[in-house]
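Worked problem 6 (solution included).
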Amino acid sequence: MNRETGPEADSAAPAQSRGQGARELVPASRNVLGGLAGDPRLSIWLIRAILALAAGIGVTVWVGWRFGLTAAALVAIADTVYRSRTTSVIPASVRVTSAQRRTERRLLLLRASGYVALNRRTIPGSDSVIDHLVIGPGGVFAVDSERWDRRLPVRSTGDLLYHGPYSQQDRLKHARWEASQAAERLSSELGETVSVRPAMAIYGPTVPWIVANLSGVDVFGGRRVRKYFRRQSRTSRGDRLDSGQIEDIHVAAALALPPGR
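Solution. The predicted structure is:
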C-alpha cells in the first residue's frame, strides 16, 4: 500500500497517531538492547574497551592525550587480531547442534549397511546427552559430534589431543564416561554385557589423520563418519553383531536412554 510522504503528510497526521508512533519506539530500543545483551561477543567487546581505556589513560597521564589516543587504538587493534586467531564467537550450543545434524545426515546413509542410530539420548541422573548412539555390524558406539573453530589446528601428542593451544583431554574423558554409562545401562537392560566404544567426529578444522585412538577414543574428521563405520564392519571380530542383536540393543537403548530435548 502506498503511503504519502513529505511535510504535508506529517502535518496532516493526527497528534494521537504521532504519539502512538513515538511510544512504539520504546519497545524497539529495548529489543536492540536485549539483542546486544545476548550477543556472545559482548564480553569480548567490554574487555577490549577496558584494556584500550586503561592504556589510553595511562599514556595520557604520562605524555599527553594525543599519544594516549594512539595507545588506546593500538591496544584495541592488537586485541582484535589476537582474538580473531584464538577465539570462536559461535556459541557452544550452536556449534554442537550444527555438528549433530551433520553427523545425523551421514548416519542415515549407513542404514543400508545395517547401522541404526539413536540421536541425542540423555543419561539418566545426569545433564549429559549422548549425541549419537550407533548400533550396527561393527558393534555399539557412543559418538560425540564437535564443531571447532577452523582457524585453530587439530594436533595430537601421544594420547593427548589439542585444538590450537588448548588441551581437549576433558572432552576425551567425557566421551569415555558417556560410553561407559551407555554400556552399563544397556547391559543392565539386556542382562548381558554390552560393550560401547567412544568416538569423536570433529567438524571445522582439518583433522590431519584418518582415525586416531587417543586416550581410548577414536577421533576422526566429521566427513569420515561413513568410512569409519564401514571400516568397523570389516575389521570387528569379537564385537560383531548380527541383525537380531542389533534390533535387541536398539530396543534396549530406546528404553534405557531417554531422548534429550
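Discussion: The longest helix spans residues 15-37.
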